[in-house]
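Supplementary Methods, section 5.1.

A reviewer requested that the exact input to the structure prediction be made available. We therefore reproduce it here, unchanged from the version used in the analyses.
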Amino acid sequence: MESDVATANSEVAEVMGRPRLRGRRCLAGLRRCGGLLVLLCFAVAGLSQSATNTTAPIEAAQQLQQRLAEAKGELARVLARQGESTNLVPGATSPEATEYRLMAESLVRVYQQHLDELGRLEAARQRLKDFEPTAKAWTGFTEPPPHSILRVDDLRDSVESLNAKIAAAEASLGLLFRFSAEAQAAAADSDGRLRLLAEQLEAAAEPEKAARLNWQRTFERLKNRLASANVAMDETRRRRVEEDLADYRLRLALAKRQLAVASQHTRFSPADLDQVIGSLDAERQSLETEIQSAETDNERRQQALAIARADLQKQLGAAGDAAGENSNRAAQIRKAQDLVQLRTAQADTSTQGLAALRQMLEIVIQERGLWQLRFENFDSHNLANLREGYRRLNHLADLAEAAKPYFQQQVDLAANLITEQSNRIQNRATTPAEAAQAQDLLDLNRQREEVAHRALRSLEKLERLTLRWKQSLDETRQALPLMARFRDLFTEFSSFTTKLWRFELFAAEDTITVDGQQITGRRSVTVGKIMMAILILAVGYWISILLSRGLERLAIKRLKVEPNQASLIRRWTRVVLIAALVVFSLVSVKIPLTVFAFLGGALAIGLGFGTQNLLKNFMSGIIILFERPFRVGDVLDVGGNRGTVTSIGIRSSVLQLWDGTETLIPNSALLENNLTNWTYSNHTVRFSLTVGVAYGSDTRRVAQLLADAADRHGLIHKDPKPQVLFVDFGESALNFEVRYWVDVMKNNAAQIGSDLRHMVASAFAESGIVMAFPQRDVHLDASRPFPVQVVQPEAQPRASGPGLDERPSIGDGVGSEEKPA
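The structure derived from this sequence is encoded token-by-token as follows.
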């Protein structure tokens, strides 16, 4: 037992060397610390192995051949044992025996793969060894410059291919590190289980238990050998990938050097163009021949599909007429359905193949034109040609990018159908006819996959060509002189602004009349048209302001229109001009008025509700303009707000209150609410002053004093004359009212009222007339006595201290008694 375990553990060390075994044991000791430590230890051990491994490839191959022979012998014994009647090893279960056979087969495959990897490793080393002198000795091309553009393209392809290979090799190397670490951890676990089984086997006394433990040890030995073999193979594969990676990097360095040298001086001769065009023409001819054959094949398969469908319909009709009479009818219908399915698949494959071939032919035609354009613009400093080349390249790149997903989807679909059909062939027992039909469907799906792959390769070729030409154009632009670069930059900016100016935002329908017939077409609304319309509106708005102001001055000076009315005319003239200007700006840049139809019904309704008040005030302003219920300068009283009208606008009017503040009142409110115009027909307004005197005053004297005071005030109108009225007998006063008239446009009515009150107060004081104030007479009923009672109040705490007076409460003292009032 111990010798077998040692043999299994020594396989890796014999193939890869002792340092690798030490790395594996290091990993086995640290694996419980986490996967990160396992990978780190494995990486260190791998570097040590790559530096100290001295096992010759021939010796390693011989050792593997010996291991492979042993593994094959073990597998033969396992297979022979399973063929016997008592095929189970004592102590083994049936699932374990099956797993043991699978592991024996896996061990044989691993050894075979390991031998193949050793061969590939030796080939990679030899390849690197042979290429190193070439890379070091290269100092330049044997041909003098300039170099062919075809050589430069080949070098660019080599650089891209080598970069892709390096990226794939680095990714593969990372996976190999991970897989090898997991295999080493599994081998270390197997070592521990083998030691534990050995100890249990030594202590086992019962034969059945010993047989079971012996089988488990044999099973674990094979598992250990398989894990060790995987570790060894992963290590060889890792070394092979490292050799390939070194070879790729060396070749990439040389390719970059060659590309740098070849790109300095390049030429594109007519011979080079003829070579490329000849190759493309040959490819085009081949594709056209293939397309003709595909069209004939597609027509034939479509006819076959139509015949199969007609036969199926015939079988279904016969089954409906003679149901139950023929027992083979169902089989014939099923056979016809299978044939329709096959013919449908053939027709679809033929159609898709024909479409792919036509796409490839189009790519070849585009590629041919691209090469000709490249030849014409090669080494050209014409900025227009360079921009046209960029435009063509971007267009072709966009086409290739748009077509690739479709063909990639076709590849994936065909792969899924191939897998499905293969599983159906393997898992379903069929007749020879059904098997042949299934095989035909499988071949059709493979053919479809191959056609899609061809289309993808054509697109990739086109992408590589566009990329190479872009690189060439970039180099040409870098070689331009400084002034040419500035012109190129300015041209790019101009091109960008031109595209932005012509960028179409949307299209609107427009109807025009041609020869008496209405033709409906679509006009584009671009950024440039909108900017021009805005410019026309801005200039026209400035002109409309000048015109409206000139019209206002003309109306005042020549037509003798009042300034207030002229101001309204100016405002409304500006509104009309702006409305006409909007229409003119849209028509002048050929934007149809139906452009606003894109707003839609919902937006139009929303705007209608939103502008409802605006339109109402607008119409109210028009009514005010024509009816003229008030003018600028009139004194109005609107909803308790009294002031002077300072402005009448389109939507609202401004009322300056007598306290100096200004109130903006909508025009609709001026028409809908009660409005008092104090100066509608004249500026004279009557005010009143109410005075109350005490009862007993001489009413005639009071009236005379009030009339004299009103007459003495110089701002009160004498015509009509102030009027004094004895208006009422009040509760506490005799009420008089003074009515007087004042020009509210020239005078402050509030100040006049204040002055008049001062004059009345002085006159009453000189004449001894008393201003009334509220008075009340209280009458007591003395027909019966009032009861008087002295009540002793409850004891109240008294405050004491300095500055506090102590006074007795009412009723304090002895001998108090009730007395009649």
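Residues 694 and 733 are 5 Å apart (CA to CA). These observations are discussed further in the main text.
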